[in-house]
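Agenda item 2: 0O2 complex prediction
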Amino acid sequence: MNMDNNDNQNVANLPSLPINSDAFPISTDFYKTAFQFQQIMMIYESAIKQIETKLEILSKEINVNKRRNPIQNIKTRIKSPESIVQKLEKKHFPVNFDSMISNLNDIAGVRVVCPYISDIYSVKEMLLKQPDIKLISENDYIECPKTSGYRSYHIVVEVPVYLSKTEHNVKVEIQLRTIAMDFWASLEHQLHYKNPEEVPESIRRELFRVAETIAMTDREMEEIAFELQALDN
Ligand code: 0O2
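Presented output:
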Protein backbone atom coordinates (compact mmCIF):
# COMPACT_ATOMS: atom_id res chain seq x y z
CA MET A 1 0.00 0.00 0.00
CA ASN A 2 1.33 3.41 -0.91
CA MET A 3 1.15 5.56 2.23
CA ASP A 4 1.97 8.76 0.35
CA ASN A 5 -1.02 8.42 -1.94
CA ASN A 6 -3.32 7.84 1.02
CA ASP A 7 -1.93 10.85 2.82
CA ASN A 8 -2.56 13.03 -0.21
CA GLN A 9 -6.11 11.79 -0.41
CA ASN A 10 -6.70 12.59 3.27
CA VAL A 11 -5.40 16.10 2.82
CA ALA A 12 -7.62 16.65 -0.22
CA ASN A 13 -10.65 15.44 1.75
CA LEU A 14 -10.06 17.68 4.77
CA PRO A 15 -13.01 20.00 5.31
CA SER A 16 -12.07 23.65 5.29
CA LEU A 17 -11.85 24.85 8.88
CA PRO A 18 -13.92 27.85 9.94
CA ILE A 19 -10.78 29.73 11.02
CA ASN A 20 -9.44 32.92 9.56
CA SER A 21 -5.70 32.23 9.52
CA ASP A 22 -4.89 35.97 9.56
CA ALA A 23 -6.79 36.36 12.81
CA PHE A 24 -5.14 33.29 14.39
CA PRO A 25 -1.50 33.26 13.21
CA ILE A 26 0.31 30.08 14.25
CA SER A 27 3.45 31.63 15.67
CA THR A 28 6.69 30.03 16.86
CA ASP A 29 5.49 30.69 20.42
CA PHE A 30 2.36 28.69 19.75
CA TYR A 31 4.42 25.74 18.50
CA LYS A 32 6.73 25.92 21.52
CA THR A 33 3.83 26.04 23.96
CA ALA A 34 1.95 23.24 22.19
CA PHE A 35 5.09 21.08 22.09
CA GLN A 36 5.80 21.68 25.78
CA PHE A 37 2.20 20.81 26.67
CA GLN A 38 2.44 17.63 24.61
CA GLN A 39 5.66 16.65 26.44
CA ILE A 40 4.12 17.26 29.87
CA MET A 41 0.99 15.29 29.02
CA MET A 42 3.11 12.42 27.69
CA ILE A 43 4.73 12.21 31.13
CA TYR A 44 1.35 12.21 32.90
CA GLU A 45 0.10 9.51 30.52
CA SER A 46 3.16 7.41 31.32
CA ALA A 47 2.50 7.78 35.05
CA ILE A 48 -1.08 6.61 34.51
CA LYS A 49 0.22 3.59 32.61
CA GLN A 50 2.56 2.70 35.48
CA ILE A 51 -0.25 2.83 38.04
CA GLU A 52 -2.66 0.95 35.78
CA THR A 53 -0.11 -1.81 35.20
CA LYS A 54 0.66 -2.10 38.92
CA LEU A 55 -3.06 -2.45 39.67
CA GLU A 56 -3.56 -5.00 36.90
CA ILE A 57 -0.65 -7.09 38.22
CA LEU A 58 -2.06 -7.05 41.76
CA SER A 59 -5.48 -8.03 40.47
CA LYS A 60 -4.03 -10.86 38.36
CA GLU A 61 -2.06 -12.19 41.31
CA ILE A 62 -5.14 -12.34 43.52
CA ASN A 63 -7.11 -13.88 40.71
CA VAL A 64 -4.54 -16.66 40.34
CA ASN A 65 -4.08 -17.25 44.08
CA LYS A 66 -7.60 -16.70 45.38
CA ARG A 67 -9.76 -17.17 42.30
CA ARG A 68 -11.47 -13.81 42.64
CA ASN A 69 -11.11 -10.31 41.25
CA PRO A 70 -10.58 -7.52 43.78
CA ILE A 71 -10.82 -5.00 40.93
CA GLN A 72 -13.91 -4.85 38.75
CA ASN A 73 -12.50 -2.27 36.35
CA ILE A 74 -10.01 0.55 36.00
CA LYS A 75 -10.75 3.82 34.23
CA THR A 76 -8.14 6.42 33.48
CA ARG A 77 -8.26 9.98 32.24
CA ILE A 78 -6.05 12.97 31.61
CA LYS A 79 -7.59 16.29 32.58
CA SER A 80 -8.53 18.34 29.54
CA PRO A 81 -6.74 21.67 28.92
CA GLU A 82 -10.07 23.43 29.46
CA SER A 83 -10.60 21.78 32.89
CA ILE A 84 -7.00 22.52 33.87
CA VAL A 85 -7.42 26.24 33.17
CA GLN A 86 -10.86 26.31 34.86
CA LYS A 87 -9.51 24.68 38.03
CA LEU A 88 -6.43 26.95 38.20
CA GLU A 89 -8.64 30.02 37.77
CA LYS A 90 -11.20 28.77 40.30
CA LYS A 91 -8.45 28.28 42.88
CA HIS A 92 -6.79 31.61 42.00
CA PHE A 93 -3.53 30.01 40.89
CA PRO A 94 -1.51 31.40 37.99
CA VAL A 95 -2.33 29.79 34.67
CA ASN A 96 1.00 28.43 33.48
CA PHE A 97 2.75 25.05 33.25
CA ASP A 98 4.74 25.35 36.51
CA SER A 99 1.63 26.30 38.43
CA MET A 100 -0.37 23.47 36.79
CA ILE A 101 2.28 20.89 37.77
CA SER A 102 2.74 22.06 41.34
CA ASN A 103 -0.84 23.04 42.20
CA LEU A 104 -3.00 20.39 40.54
CA ASN A 105 -2.95 16.81 41.82
CA ASP A 106 -5.50 15.35 39.46
CA ILE A 107 -4.14 15.98 35.97
CA ALA A 108 -3.57 12.25 35.83
CA GLY A 109 -6.57 10.38 37.22
CA VAL A 110 -7.17 6.70 37.82
CA ARG A 111 -10.50 5.32 39.03
CA VAL A 112 -10.52 1.84 40.48
CA VAL A 113 -13.87 0.12 40.87
CA CYS A 114 -13.89 -2.78 43.34
CA PRO A 115 -16.61 -5.31 44.16
CA TYR A 116 -16.52 -4.81 47.95
CA ILE A 117 -15.51 -2.12 50.46
CA SER A 118 -12.80 -4.38 51.95
CA ASP A 119 -11.25 -4.71 48.45
CA ILE A 120 -10.78 -0.94 48.34
CA TYR A 121 -8.69 -0.97 51.51
CA SER A 122 -6.66 -4.04 50.55
CA VAL A 123 -5.91 -2.79 47.00
CA LYS A 124 -4.89 0.59 48.42
CA GLU A 125 -2.60 -1.05 51.04
CA MET A 126 -0.99 -3.32 48.44
CA LEU A 127 -0.31 -0.39 46.12
CA LEU A 128 1.08 1.88 48.84
CA LYS A 129 3.46 -0.87 50.01
CA GLN A 130 5.37 -0.65 46.74
CA PRO A 131 8.69 1.13 47.26
CA ASP A 132 8.43 3.39 44.21
CA ILE A 133 5.04 4.75 45.23
CA LYS A 134 5.02 7.79 47.51
CA LEU A 135 1.81 8.76 49.26
CA ILE A 136 1.16 12.50 49.02
CA SER A 137 -2.33 12.69 50.52
CA GLU A 138 -5.37 10.54 51.28
CA ASN A 139 -9.04 11.20 51.93
CA ASP A 140 -11.34 8.51 53.22
CA TYR A 141 -14.74 9.62 51.95
CA ILE A 142 -16.07 6.16 52.85
CA GLU A 143 -15.57 6.61 56.59
CA CYS A 144 -16.38 10.33 56.27
CA PRO A 145 -18.68 10.82 53.25
CA LYS A 146 -18.99 14.29 51.71
CA THR A 147 -22.10 16.32 52.57
CA SER A 148 -23.48 15.39 49.14
CA GLY A 149 -23.38 11.70 50.13
CA TYR A 150 -20.33 11.06 47.90
CA ARG A 151 -18.23 8.07 48.95
CA SER A 152 -14.84 6.96 47.61
CA TYR A 153 -11.30 6.55 48.88
CA HIS A 154 -8.97 9.15 47.32
CA ILE A 155 -5.20 8.98 47.32
CA VAL A 156 -2.69 11.16 45.56
CA VAL A 157 0.57 9.34 44.93
CA GLU A 158 3.82 10.16 43.23
CA VAL A 159 5.30 7.62 40.84
CA PRO A 160 8.63 7.88 39.00
CA VAL A 161 8.60 8.07 35.22
CA TYR A 162 11.93 7.33 33.53
CA LEU A 163 12.52 8.92 30.13
CA SER A 164 15.63 8.55 27.96
CA LYS A 165 17.47 11.38 29.68
CA THR A 166 15.35 12.49 32.62
CA GLU A 167 13.40 11.12 35.57
CA HIS A 168 10.16 12.68 36.83
CA ASN A 169 8.15 12.14 39.99
CA VAL A 170 4.59 12.47 38.79
CA LYS A 171 1.42 12.95 40.82
CA VAL A 172 -1.56 10.73 40.09
CA GLU A 173 -4.95 10.93 41.81
CA ILE A 174 -6.47 7.53 42.43
CA GLN A 175 -10.13 7.21 43.36
CA LEU A 176 -11.13 3.80 44.73
CA ARG A 177 -14.81 2.94 45.04
CA THR A 178 -17.23 0.05 44.99
CA ILE A 179 -19.50 -0.69 42.05
CA ALA A 180 -22.38 0.78 44.05
CA MET A 181 -20.46 3.98 44.93
CA ASP A 182 -19.46 4.34 41.28
CA PHE A 183 -23.07 3.97 40.18
CA TRP A 184 -24.15 6.77 42.51
CA ALA A 185 -21.19 9.09 41.80
CA SER A 186 -21.43 8.72 38.01
CA LEU A 187 -25.14 9.50 37.90
CA GLU A 188 -24.94 12.27 40.48
CA HIS A 189 -22.02 13.84 38.60
CA GLN A 190 -24.08 13.91 35.42
CA LEU A 191 -27.12 15.25 37.27
CA HIS A 192 -25.60 18.19 39.01
CA TYR A 193 -22.08 17.94 40.39
CA LYS A 194 -20.74 20.72 38.15
CA ASN A 195 -23.61 23.14 38.97
CA PRO A 196 -24.62 22.34 42.53
CA GLU A 197 -26.22 25.76 43.07
CA GLU A 198 -28.85 24.96 40.44
CA VAL A 199 -30.10 21.87 42.30
CA PRO A 200 -33.07 22.34 44.64
CA GLU A 201 -32.49 21.38 48.27
CA SER A 202 -35.20 18.68 48.08
CA ILE A 203 -33.32 16.87 45.29
CA ARG A 204 -30.03 17.16 47.17
CA ARG A 205 -31.69 15.53 50.17
CA GLU A 206 -33.08 12.80 47.94
CA LEU A 207 -29.64 12.13 46.41
CA PHE A 208 -28.13 11.99 49.90
CA ARG A 209 -30.81 9.51 50.98
CA VAL A 210 -30.11 7.31 47.93
CA ALA A 211 -26.37 7.43 48.75
CA GLU A 212 -27.17 6.15 52.27
CA THR A 213 -29.31 3.33 50.87
CA ILE A 214 -26.54 2.38 48.47
CA ALA A 215 -23.98 2.41 51.29
CA MET A 216 -26.21 0.08 53.31
CA THR A 217 -26.55 -2.26 50.33
CA ASP A 218 -22.75 -2.25 49.95
CA ARG A 219 -22.34 -3.35 53.56
CA GLU A 220 -25.04 -6.03 53.22
CA MET A 221 -23.49 -7.46 50.05
CA GLU A 222 -20.13 -7.63 51.79
CA GLU A 223 -21.64 -9.47 54.78
CA ILE A 224 -23.19 -12.01 52.40
CA ALA A 225 -19.82 -12.44 50.68
CA PHE A 226 -18.10 -13.01 54.05
CA GLU A 227 -20.75 -15.59 55.06
CA LEU A 228 -20.30 -17.46 51.79
CA GLN A 229 -16.52 -17.33 52.17
CA ALA A 230 -16.82 -18.81 55.66
CA LEU A 231 -18.84 -21.72 54.22
CA ASP A 232 -16.01 -22.42 51.75
CA ASN A 233 -13.34 -22.52 54.48
P1 0O2 B 1 -13.98 15.53 37.73
O1 0O2 B 1 -14.73 16.03 36.56
O2 0O2 B 1 -14.55 14.25 38.29
O3 0O2 B 1 -12.49 15.45 37.53
P2 0O2 B 1 -9.83 19.32 44.17
O4 0O2 B 1 -9.62 17.95 43.59
O5 0O2 B 1 -8.56 20.10 44.18
O6 0O2 B 1 -11.03 20.02 43.59
P3 0O2 B 1 -10.23 18.23 46.72
O7 0O2 B 1 -11.19 18.65 47.81
O8 0O2 B 1 -8.86 17.85 47.15
O9 0O2 B 1 -10.19 19.35 45.67
O10 0O2 B 1 -10.78 17.09 45.88
P4 0O2 B 1 -11.76 15.98 46.33
O11 0O2 B 1 -13.07 16.59 46.67
O12 0O2 B 1 -11.08 15.10 47.30
O13 0O2 B 1 -11.92 15.21 44.96
C1 0O2 B 1 -12.35 15.85 43.82
C2 0O2 B 1 -12.90 14.79 42.88
O14 0O2 B 1 -13.70 13.84 43.60
C3 0O2 B 1 -13.82 15.41 41.88
O15 0O2 B 1 -13.06 15.78 40.77
C4 0O2 B 1 -14.80 14.26 41.58
O16 0O2 B 1 -14.24 13.35 40.66
C5 0O2 B 1 -14.92 13.59 42.92
N1 0O2 B 1 -16.00 14.17 43.77
C6 0O2 B 1 -15.81 14.91 44.89
N2 0O2 B 1 -17.00 15.24 45.44
C7 0O2 B 1 -17.97 14.71 44.65
C8 0O2 B 1 -19.42 14.69 44.71
O17 0O2 B 1 -20.05 15.24 45.59
N3 0O2 B 1 -20.05 14.02 43.69
C9 0O2 B 1 -19.36 13.39 42.70
N4 0O2 B 1 -20.09 12.75 41.77
N5 0O2 B 1 -18.00 13.40 42.61
C10 0O2 B 1 -17.31 14.03 43.57
P5 0O2 B 1 -13.36 17.11 39.97
O18 0O2 B 1 -12.10 17.65 39.42
O19 0O2 B 1 -14.14 18.08 40.83
O20 0O2 B 1 -14.27 16.65 38.81
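Discussion summary: Residues 106, 139, 146, 148, 150, 154, 185, 188-189, 193 surround 0O2 (CB under 6 Å).
Owner for follow-up: CH.
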